[in-house]
């Protein structure tokens, strides 16, 4: 490509608090009937008094610390004024010139090795109400659910340091992982608790000035973010090559059509008329409290990834996949600590099960590992059955899925289903002789030099044993019997 892509991301993440940002209404609203968790503060009634949620402020401080930010000694809330139907009072309580945290960074694997993505600021605001669009044969209309209004919302703004859609996706993945490790947010993009707006422009390689910036909205998954940025990257390059002007605008993303579309111009900077929130005085952030919050931070994903590689001998890919989720990493370490073998071999076994069958079933059944019924000790027990030849690898996968669904131990499942590998030589010898007796053509093929006949006959033994024969022993006995012929 002749052009360099410049991307910056604005991430909004709803915070895990019991109550909303400026009132005592419940902050959980997803399962509630519309407009049932609201109060005069939520709807912006005249004369109401907002009171800041200190837990939300601490969540932002902890996030800032995890992102290597400087924490302000003094901060304040501001009114951001704009008229929009989902903002009933005509303004949003946000932060302007004195955010809680600023000047941090996040390290990711970039196009040219490790990339440092600077974080401009982390600030706190209130979420807005939610539109519910309806349409029928006669008309289209929108309803407003105010339950979401006032939920604590943290905004994390990056500098334009990302250079590709891949880097943007990796940044979002890493950021979500950090928020989940801190337990400050569920950071679930599909549920709307983790939302992203992307700013993208292009410029010829070697140029230092930024080109016209396009903001992309309406992306509800990492996949959508990646596809939208890829489409917009190609669209802007094509505009440059054909001489078409790139407008500075806001564009939406259509998942159905797989393209961005123009929403509104941003040629003129929007005047939000920020001014200090008159109902909330500025607040000081005590240094000793910041130190205490820093000491309370858990081991972060990158540090845990490095420890997994050093302590357990895992590959970069294994360590990365296991540490994306704190719950998955915790479960992995529980399995390893339960095993009696060496730490490295136990880690390899646990990694294979978790990144193989466990991940497959979690994806298929749309579950989170925190809801998994398999006790770590039962996973070790299952592996011991494979090592002792009680179960074949194929049978073990079937037992694993039943463990996943029921929470039963592997011993209980094997006993109940009769699923046990046949490793008794005399029993298998009888099946081998039967398979050879009824498959004359395969025997003739072997005698004329066709080695593939062995695999066919082993398959026939497995069929007679209903899949329970020890395949290695079966093959040894088949070869021995054929050579005797």
What report would you give on this structure?
With 485 residues, the protein is of the alpha+beta class. The strands form 4 sheets. Strands 2-6-7-10-1-11-12-13-14 form a 9-stranded mixed β-sheet. A hairpin with a 2-residue loop joins strand 6 and strand 7. It is elongated, with a radius of gyration of 30 Å. The N and C termini lie far apart (67 Å). The mean pLDDT is 90.
Apparent shape: elongated
Query: How many strands?
Result: 16
First-residue to last-residue Cα separation: 67 Å
Low-confidence stretches: none
Would you spell out the secondary-structure blueprint of this structure?
Blueprint: E1 3-14, H1 54-66, E2 70-71, E3 74-75, E4 78-81, E5 91-94, E6 101-110, E7 113-126, E8 130-135, E9 140-145, E10 152-158, H2 165-182, E11 194-204, E12 214-217, H3 222-242, E13 249-254, E14 259-265, E15 275-276, E16 283-284, H4 287-295, H5 301-312, H6 316-323, H7 326-338, H8 343-364, H9 376-387, H10 393-406, H11 410-417, H12 425-437, H13 440-447, H14 452-464, H15 471-484
Helix pairs in contact: 2-3, 5-6, 7-8, 7-9, 9-10, 12-14, 12-15, 13-14, 14-15
């Amino acid at each position: 490509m002749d052009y360099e892509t410049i991307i910056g991301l604005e991430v909004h993440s709803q915070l895990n608090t019991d109550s909303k940002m400026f009132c005592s209404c419940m902050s959980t609203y997803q399962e509630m009937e519309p407009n049932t968790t609201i109060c005069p503060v939520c709807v912006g009634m005249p004369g109401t008094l907002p009171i800041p949620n200190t837990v939300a402020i601490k969540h932002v401080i902890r996030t800032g610390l995890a992102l290597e930010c400087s924490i302000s000694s003094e901060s304040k809330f501001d009114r951001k004024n704009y008229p929009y139907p989902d903002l009933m009072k005509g303004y949003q309580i946000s932060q302007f010139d004195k955010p809680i945290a600023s000047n941090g960074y996040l390290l990711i694997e970039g196009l040219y090795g490790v990339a440092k993505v600077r974080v401009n600021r982390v600030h706190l605001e209130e979420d807005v109400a939610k539109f519910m669009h309806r349409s029928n044969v006669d008309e289209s209309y929108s309803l407003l659910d105010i339950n979401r209004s006032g939920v604590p919302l943290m905004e994390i703004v990056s500098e334009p340091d990302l250079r590709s859609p891949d880097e943007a996706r990796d940044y979002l993945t890493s950021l979500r992982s950090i928020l989940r490790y801190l337990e400050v947010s569920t950071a679930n993009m599909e549920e709307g608790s983790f939302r992203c707006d992307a700013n993208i422009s292009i410029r010829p390689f070697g140029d230092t000035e930024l080109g016209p910036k396009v903001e992309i909205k309406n992306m509800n998954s990492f996949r959508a973010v990646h596809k939208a940025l890829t489409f917009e990257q190609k669209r802007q390059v094509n505009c440059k090559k054909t001489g078409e002007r790139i407008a500075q605008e806001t564009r939406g993303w259509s998942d159905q059509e797989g393209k961005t579309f123009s929403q509104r111009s941003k040629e003129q900077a929007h005047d939000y008329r920020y001014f200090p929130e008159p109902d909330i005085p500025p607040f000081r952030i005590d240094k000793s409290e910041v130190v205490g919050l820093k000491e309370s931070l858990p081991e972060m994903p990158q540090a845990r990834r490095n420890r997994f590689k050093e302590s357990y001998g895992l590959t970069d890919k294994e360590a990365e996949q296991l540490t994306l989720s704190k719950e998955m990493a915790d479960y992995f370490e529980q399995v390893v600590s339960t095993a009696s073998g060496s730490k490295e071999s136990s880690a390899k076994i646990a990694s294979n099960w978790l990144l193989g069958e466990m991940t497959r079933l979690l994806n298929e059944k749309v579950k989170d590992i925190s809801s998994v019924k398999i006790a770590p000790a039962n996973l070790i027990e299952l592996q011991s059955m494979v090592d002792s030849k009680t179960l074949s690898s194929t049978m073990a996968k079937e037992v694993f899925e039943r463990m996943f669904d029921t929470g039963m131990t592997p011993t209980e499942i094997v006993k109940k289903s009769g699923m046990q590998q046949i490793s008794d030589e005399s029993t298998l010898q009888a099946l081998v002789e039967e398979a050879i007796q009824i498959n004359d053509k395969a025997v003739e093929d072997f005698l004329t030099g066709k080695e593939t006949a062995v695999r066919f006959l082993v398959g026939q033994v497995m069929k007679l044993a209903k899949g329970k024969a020890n395949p290695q022993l079966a093959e040894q006995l088949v070869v021995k019997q054929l050579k005797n012929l």
